[in-house]
Amino acid sequence: MTATVHGFQTQVTKLLDLLANSLYSNKEVFLRELISNASDAIDKLHFLSLTNQDLIKDDPTFKIRIRADKDLKTLTITDNGIGMTLEEANNHLGTIAESGTEAFMKNLTGDAKRDSQLIGQFGVGFYSSFIVAKKVTVLSRSVNASEDEGVRWESDGNGSFTSEQVKVPFRGTQIILELKDDESEFLDTWRLRECITKYSDHISTPVELYEEKYEAPKEDENKDEKEGEKKEPEKKFEYTQVNNAQALWTRAPKEIKEEEYNEFYKHLSRDYQDPLTYAHNKVEGDLEYTSLLYIPKTAPWDLFNRDNEHGLKLYVQRVFIMDKAESFLPNYLRFVKGLVDTNALPLNISRELLQETQVTRKLKKALTKRVLSMIDKLSKDEEKYKDFYKQFGNVLKEGPAEDYENREAILKLLRYASTNKDEAVCSVSLDDYISRMKEGQDKIYYLTAESYEACKNSPYLEQLKSKGIEVLLMWERVDEWLMSQIFEYQGKEFVSANSQDLKLGKLADEDDKKKQEESTEKNKDLIERFKKALGDKVKDVVVSTRLVDSPSCVISESNRMMTMQMRRLLEASGQNIPEDKFTLEINPEHQLVKKAYAEMEEERFATWANLIYEQALLADQGALKDPSSFVKAMNSLLIG
């Protein structure tokens, strides 16, 4: 069969260009990636062979072999795993078979440091070969194929590859790297041994290295009859197992070094950096299982693609069953990596049946609590938690609405900015807030807006600030959605600072109430003129008690008024959202309101009233439906 030339998928070509520029500062990771791929191929076949031993009868002992040839300048990695057909080789080695690849590639900027981090998060597996190789040849034969149905795939990484069907006498996959001239270090067996021990000691499949062995001559042959001298030891080459070949999670935690946990994480997740934290637990009793859970340092580029596959690796009695089993953790913990190994599930469990079993439900409950406990422990380290929250805080906020059972535990982990701190840093917990409540305060006050600046400078804060009441500031998109789903924490009700009723309770000042009644009576004419000018644009016009420095604000009867940000999100999703009607609160002591009231011409007063109303809308909503009319009115009043 004649080899066919194929062009790489566009994304692959871009990726190879980046790799060619040595985005990986540590080139030896290519060996970790290829060994991990080989291990995965063996795991898949091992699982299939449990119900069909005939699949491996010709080669029943699983192994990964590595051989360097200094004369040919090649490095060969061979596994006897599941192998590939021609179609699979073209698909797996010619494209990046990951959802959202296009979005990932758009994130690449040309900044070497940032791009290398993105690539590390995405994982490049086989393509890392081109970091050190000028040419890569792959020979493979699927477990379900005959010798004559083998595959030869070849590329120099410059935009195309060739593939053809050839005779391959062995099952599995062999990758032959023709190394670049300046990568000859990876032809030295001591260097390869060092890399295998460092990165792949935990691989449960034996990793064997072809290396020199010296065999001393037998005692009675020590003397040469003619020369009377000792013979030199005989030099031989053979495969020697290099790695420990014991599944890391089956060992006692006290026997495992942190470096080993870190390297296993990189194998498991294909991340390029160490995890932020991890937890290794073995549980015995009615439900026996072992879990090894990791929290990454950096959020994956597609964290907020809720449809993206995620989840833990599932092992049953140390046999790999499936990757990305999403049934063991809720969606808001989708950033957690790791595995669970149990003997309480059957080996032939399917992804569909897995979701329905009582064992799965129990494991999910236990593992969720384990992760929340990990995060809570992490929160005791302020600097580490700051890093964690920057990466994963927004996805954690999905939790209180999704996981009612753990709602309080999740809310305890959330962090906010507040009026107590003059910085846009989310470092205040709800427990911190409660500990600083004023005497007589029994509500948690918060404000959502489109930005930190909009929160910090909001007129809604003026009265609360004047009373020394702390307000939590929120400006992420998820915040408004979250606050529409939760109503209290530790028995303390959440109250929005833009609510019509702030429910100040014991914090309310009787003098303020009296002053408002007097002000309302005193400014009856002003209120009536505003009501007449604005008509049905507003629900009502009242004198404000909350405003100190601002002329006006808009409020809603609801404790949770919909902002323009939320309105846009819902309208973009195709929902028909009815118009809000607000109550306009005015500050009759403000110079702008006084100037408007002094206007005797009713048409011009109406222009002032609309301007003051739309100013309040703009401050609250961040946008107006007709900004040009607002600007036109403002200009006409400025000109006089």
Describe the structure.
Helix 18 (524-534) packs across helix 21. The chain folds into four domains: 4-216 and 232-241, Histidine kinase-like ATPase, C-terminal domain (Heat Shock Protein 90); 248-391, 2-Layer Sandwich (Ribosomal Protein S5, domain 2); 415-507, Rossmann fold (3-Layer(aba) Sandwich); 510-639, Up-down Bundle (Four Helix Bundle (Hemerythrin (Met), subunit A)), CATH 1.20.120.790. With 640 residues, it is α+β, with helices and mostly antiparallel strands. The chain is elongated and about 120 Å long. It is built from 22 helices and 22 strands. Mean pLDDT is 86; it is low at 97-101. The chain starts with a strand and ends with a helix. 36% of the residues lie in helices and 20% in strands. Strands 1-6-5-4-7-3-2-8-9 form a nine-stranded mixed beta sheet, covered by helices on one side. Strands 10-11-14-12-13 form a five-stranded mixed beta sheet, sandwiched between helices. Strands 15-17-16-19-18 form a five-stranded mixed beta sheet.
